[in-house]
Specification:
homodimer; alpha+beta; Arc Repressor Mutant, subunit A; Beta-Lactamase; Enolase-like, domain 1; five-stranded antiparallel sheet; three-stranded antiparallel sheet; DNA-binding
Amino acid sequence: MEPAARKKQILSAIVESYIQTGEPVGSKALIQEAGLKVSSATVRNDMADLTERGYIVQPHTSAGRIPTQRGYRYYVDNALDVKPVTAQGREYITDALSQNADSPESLLQNASNLLTRLTDYVAFATTPGGEESRIRKISFVPTGAHAAMAVVIVSNGIIKTKLFRCEFLLTPEILQVFDKALNDVFAGVRLEAVNRPFIQTAAAGFGELSLLMPSALIAIKEACDLARVVSVYHSGLGRLIGDAQADRILEFLQNQHDLAAMLERLPLNTAATIGKENSRVELAYSSVVSARYKIDGSPSGVLAVIGPMRMDYARMISVLNCTAECVSELLNEMIDY
Amino acid sequence: MEPAARKKQILSAIVESYIQTGEPVGSKALIQEAGLKVSSATVRNDMADLTERGYIVQPHTSAGRIPTQRGYRYYVDNALDVKPVTAQGREYITDALSQNADSPESLLQNASNLLTRLTDYVAFATTPGGEESRIRKISFVPTGAHAAMAVVIVSNGIIKTKLFRCEFLLTPEILQVFDKALNDVFAGVRLEAVNRPFIQTAAAGFGELSLLMPSALIAIKEACDLARVVSVYHSGLGRLIGDAQADRILEFLQNQHDLAAMLERLPLNTAATIGKENSRVELAYSSVVSARYKIDGSPSGVLAVIGPMRMDYARMISVLNCTAECVSELLNEMIDY
DNA sequence: AGTTAGCACTCCCACCCTTAGAGTGCTAAA
DNA sequence: TTTAGCACTCTAAGGGTGGGAGTGCTAACT
C-alpha cells in the first residue's frame, strides 16, 4: 500500500477509535483495530508525520494520539461513511414528529425532543426565518371592553398574537372596521417591511380612522417582529453536565438571542461545524451538527445538535438529514392550502 | 445566659456562618463571630448536644460542624430576620416586571428572569392554575380555507389558541355560527368542566349543526386543557453546575409535567422547603423558596427559586415575597376589565 | 526509499507515606 | 456548670516510588 494512503487510513482509524472509546490511541492498538499489515514502528513514523501536520496530538509524551479539530475535519470531509436512515427509522421519525403537531411550533418542539432522544445530545430547532415570509392575513379578537388581540397569520405557517389596549370602547364593529382597513394594507406585505415608517405611512392613509388605532398598529408590528424572530426549542440540556465548559455553554444556550444568531449562521446544507469553526467561543471544544428543513424547496429553519468534538458524526449527519427531510414534508403539508 | 438560650444562639450562628462561608464552623471561630462570653470548651459541649439532637453534623471527626436539614429548619422557623424589601427595591422589581409585559405569560417570564438576576439561582414562575377559572369567551379566526384557530379567553387572563382543520369549506359565515352557538354553551363554564362528556353533551344539543363542528369542539377542549396546565418559565439553569446532583436536577427540571406537579404542591404562603422535605428525591440536597401571587386575593401561581440548602433564606424570602406581591398587583391590573 | 526490530527514554498515574493543622471529646479541677 | 489541658482523630497537601504505556531514534534489512 502506498504510504500516503496508509496515513489516511491510520488517521481515520485513530478518529474512529477515539470516537468510540475516548482513549488516546497507541501504535500497537491501531494495528489491530485497522487490520494493518505493517509493524508498529512504521505506524509510529506515520503518526509522527500526521502529528507534525496537525491532524493529531499527544495529550502527553507517553500517551497515544487523539485527533485535533483538523483531524476531525479531514475525517468528516473525506472518510465519513454516512448510512442513510432505514425505511423503518424514517417511519419512526415521521411518527414521532407528528404527535400532537398541529402548528409549526409544536412540530419543531417535537423535532428538538426527538433529536435529543435519538442522539443523546442537546438538540435545537428554530422556527422558519422571516426573510421571504409575507403576511397572509390579520384578524382581531376582542378580549375585553378595552382590549383585543391582534392575530397575524404568516405565509410560512407561523401565527403570532399580540394583545393591545385602547382608551375607548372596543366594540366588535370597530374591530371589523380595523379588520377590513388593515387587511387591505397589510395582506401580502413582507414581514421585514413592517417597520416604524411603514406603520406611520399606513396610519396616515387612514385619515381620521387612524386616530383610533395606534395601539392596534403597534400590536401588529410587534406581532410581525415576533414572527420574524426565530424561536428556539431546545431539549436535553442535562446531557451537558460533565463537559468542562458546561456552565459557559449553558449560560450561552439560555440566551435566546445569541443562540438564534449562532444557529442562523450555520451552513445551508447538512454539515458538521467542529470546535473553533463555531462562531461562539463557548463552543470551541464542541461540535454542532446541523441541517435545515425546507419550505417550498428552499432551506429555512435549522435543526441542530451540540455535542463534544468526539461524536459519531456519521450517525448524527444521517439522523439530522432524515429528520430535516421529514420536518420539511410535514411542514409543507401543514401550510399548503 | 441560660444554657438553652445559648444553644439556640450557637445554632443560629453556625447556620449563618456556614451560609456565608460554606466552611464547617469550629468552636473557636464561633466564639468570635457570635460574640460569646464563654470558653470554647463550653461551646464544644453545647455543640455536642446539638449534634446529638440532630441539628448539626461533622463532615468528619476533626472538622467543624455544618447544619443538617433539621438545623436549617429550626433556623428558618425561629431565628430568621427577614428584612422587607426597601421602597426602591420594590420599585425596581415593579419596573423590571413591567418591561414588555402585555400578557400574564410575559409577565411571569419576566418574573422568572428577574428572580434569577436577583438571587443567582434557578428561578421559576407558573401560570395561574385553572381550578377556579372560567371561560370568558371563545373566538374563531380563519387561517385558511379548511383551517381556523380557536381562541379561548379565560377569566384569569390567560388566552390559549388552538388550530383545527375540517373537511368542508370554512367560510366566515360558518365560523360566525360557531361563534354564536359555542359561546352560548361555553361562556362562564369552569375549565375543569370542559371534558369529553361535556363536549359530547354540547354537541348533542346542536342538532344537525354538530356534524360540522367536531374538530372545532376538540380544539376548544384542547385549548382549555392547555389553559389549565400550568406553564413553567424558568431561567438560570447554568447556575446549577457544580452541584453534585446537577444532572439529575436538570433532567427533572426539563420535564414540564413533573416540575409543574412539584411546584403546585408547594405551600400557599411564602416558605422554604428544605432538602428532603421536597417531594422530589432530586431535590433532597437542595432547597426551594417559594411564594404565590394572588388573583382576586386568593393564592394562585407559584414563584420559586431552587438553590443549595446553604442559601441566604432571609434574603430569598423577602425577595420572593415582594416579587409575588408586585406580580399580583400587575396581574390584577391586567385582568381587571 | 521504505520498513522493521530493538532499546532507551519520558511521562502519567496510582499508591503509599508523612506531616501539619484543625478541631474534637474527655477528664479533672474550679 | 464552666473551664483548662491534653491526647486523639482525621483531612488535605506534599513528596517519593514503581509500573506501564507509548514514544522517538538508530541501525539494519528489503
